[in-house]
Amino acid sequence: xxxxxxxxxxxxxxxxxxxxxxxxxxxxxxxxxxxxxxxxxxxxxxxxxxxxxxxxxxxxxxxxxxxxxxxxxxxxxxxxxxxxxxxxxxxxxxxxxxxxxxxxxxxxxxxxxxxxxxxxxxxxxxxxxxxxxxxxxxxxxxxxxxxxxxxxxxxxxxxxxxxxxxxxxxxxxxxxxxxxxxxxxxxxxxxxxxxxxxxxxxxxxxxxxxxxxxxxxxxxxxxxxxxxxxxxxxxxxxxxxxxxxxxxxxxxxxxxxxxxxxxxxxxxxxxxxxxxxxxxxxxxxxxxxxxxxxxxxxxxxxxxxxxxxxxxxxxxxxxxxxxxxxxxxxxxxxxxxxxxxxxxxx
Amino acid sequence: xxxxxxxxxxxxxxxxxxxxxxxxxxxxxxxxxxxxxxxxxxxxxxxxxxxxxxxxxxxxxxxxxxxxxxxxxxxxxxxxxxxxxxxxxxxxxxxxxxxxxxxxxxxxxxxxxxxxxxxxxxxxxxxxxxxxxxxxxxxxxxxxxxxxxxxxxxxxxxxxxxxxxxxxxxxxxxxxxxxxxxxxxxxxxxxxxxxxxxxxxxxxxxxxxxxxxxxxxxxx
Lengths: 346, 220
Known about the structure:
The structure holds two protein chains of two kinds.
Chain A: E1 4-17, E2 20-33, E3 37-41, H1 48-55, E4 63-68, E5 71-72, H2 78-84, E6 88-91, H3 103-118, H4 123-136, H5 152-164, E7 170-174, H6 182-199, E8 202-207, H7 210-216, E9 219-224, E10 227-233, H8 234-239, H9 244-254, H10 260-269, E11 273-280, H11 281-284, H12 289-295, E12 299-310, E13 313-323, H13 326-337, E14 342-344
Parallel strand pairs in A: 3-8, 3-9, 6-7, 7-8
Antiparallel strand pairs in A: 1-2, 1-4, 4-5, 9-10, 11-13, 11-14, 12-13
Helix pairs in contact in A: 3-4, 3-5, 4-5, 5-6, 12-13
Chain B: H1 5-44, H2 53-66, H3 71-77, H4 79-86, H5 92-116, H6 120-128, H7 133-144, H8 146-164, H9 175-184, H10 189-217
Helix pairs in contact in B: 1-2, 1-5, 1-8, 1-9, 4-5, 5-8, 6-7, 8-10, 9-10
């Protein structure tokens, strides 16, 4: 991995409200590498939206150090920030398109601002760039439509085209799929993936949906009450979540383990021992759980579970009903426990 | 003696001209000053782009002070100041001075209300793209709120036509004075109603134009 493009070092953001002080971001230290897709996940009110607004200076840091692409954002004036923001695109949950402008005029807007500063984006250049961007997001035929005439997914694609207009190095995505249906969400995520791969743009995506993290991110930070409670490679977070909140998020995406209610029904249908086995690629390579159980002489029924790909690697868990003598079952569990996690659930 | 259009028609035309002149100047000055005041109110309010409690509170109190004063009393109360600024306290221009102040105050509120309707998310997006406050004002705020602003100014036009009828109080002329002197005081109901008709036509024409413009600028 290359050097970090965004560095947060003990960053705090405190809002003074009528009820007292609110620590929206409470001592966050993070490195986000150039070229990666970094997810920030948390429930609403966890401080993730505030965190992302610190990066482009929409909100000033209360304390701590925040460096973006060599610029010390936490020490810059609003006027200095205006230039830095051209290197940081942003897309929003509610798209935030200008209603009074057409699709093409919306995408041209950041270029107009840039032109006012550096005189390098005259009308002809802007037009060419807008056409190129609308082509990239697949909306070339809607250039003259107004935002009100577009679907949610189309609006977000315009939002992405607009955010990419000034060739930024970083793209901040604030819950950019939360207002969209599942299919449209996939389209938007695919577009972000293409932007990351083809334009080599670093993406910081804020979300409360673990599926978004699973499908798009390289690394993820889990936030709660203004703090990062866990962070790392997406596969590691999914396969070995440490914090209870992280586990809850992982479960919302994987649904590979039976819920307590489902477990009750399973136990009624399958008397005997129920075990849930974690499937990680490194543990189970060449040794399947099923073989091990068979070798131990128990009768194993697969009753629940799922295995999915996370960051191109398989992960999931399988729940088995085991039938046999007490010794056989104990031996089978020990044999599997030898190479992966086993939870005896009933 | 009934009003004779064939010999005194130009008095009527002059009255129409005076009313239009008063409305145009009062709206021109008051509309612009009010736009600036309304923008200032919007920008300095809590959570605004240039949040400033002192400026906001002072402006807010001033506007709230002027707004409830009945206009006819306001004209009288402003007499000394009008004399100092305009050089006379009677005549058309002496009327336009207090009228412009009142129009400014009304416009300020109207502009503030129209701007509040602009989606804060769009303003945030513009900030994220590196837009300065000035650019946000003229490319986002005034553009996105254009339809409500046009409708607001149209409403204001009607209110100013209404105000202008009081110009006669300081010998400022106009249709109000005409309807009173030649209609009411001479028991010539026809003249009063002809005046009313002219005002209704002017107001309707402007309202029609305002609605049409607002619809054209609205893209939602």
